[in-house]
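Take a careful look at the protein record below. Let me know whether the structure tokens fit the sequence:
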Amino acid sequence: MRHLGIGWSRFVERHPVPVFTLPSVVAVALLMAFPVGYTLYMSVHSWYASSVTSPHFVGLENFRRAFVEDDRFRNALWLTVYFTALATALQLVLGVSLALVLNRPFRGKGLVRSIFLLPMVATPVAIALVWMMMYNPTLGVMNYLVGLVGLGPYRWVSNAAIVVPALAVVDTWEWTPLITLITLAGLATLPIEPYESALIDGASATQMFWRITLPLLRPTIMVALLFRAIDCLKTFDIIYVMTQGGPGFASETLNVYTFQVGLFYFHIGYASSLLVILFALVLGVSLLLIKVRRGAW
């Protein structure tokens, strides 16, 4: 036993990194692998959480049912894509524009940057509750603001026609600073030589932006877009707190619908298949944006 202990001590002294990190790696791998494996297993079974029987294997029937028979799923899938496209487009335009403004030297620049980052600090549930008050049809400030330009009043989150854009505005308010922050980091790394050459050639500021800044910032912007697209595809908290998928199913995205199927209808098997579809959607969008970032398209 003594020789074994001495041998183990020497082994630890020679290989400290794998010995001390292996338990953490194994624990994290198990915590990640089990939920993924169990979701994949349940996605090909039919089983209700309230049932006393064991899961029944149905193969790909849950996926066929989702795409062929479930109108509510197809509506949720469309709303997920619609919300993601609208929110990411708004955040991209506003975030890059703000970064270009904040990249210029002016007094109080650090303070202004800090104020712009504050929305990211707040929790999504608190933000949703605040915006619910702002969207109030009678007492909210939003109807007052649009009323100044002769618009409204609107029932922001109870009108099926504008509920998704209203939710996209809330998400944009919270996460545009992230795009700004990433773009500012990208602007700080741009080389100065192309701008000096452009000035010598007599290029205008607009030409330098479209011909130099934007192409050089493309990888940075695509990274920011990738982060926001993934997050928007699985947005749950803001939507559920503000509308719970309503009115009707007008703002029920795929994540909200999966939550309803799994934890309200207790159809765990079908909910697991919806999660697999959502994962495939996120993975597909991520691979597409990575390909664009590498300049393949």
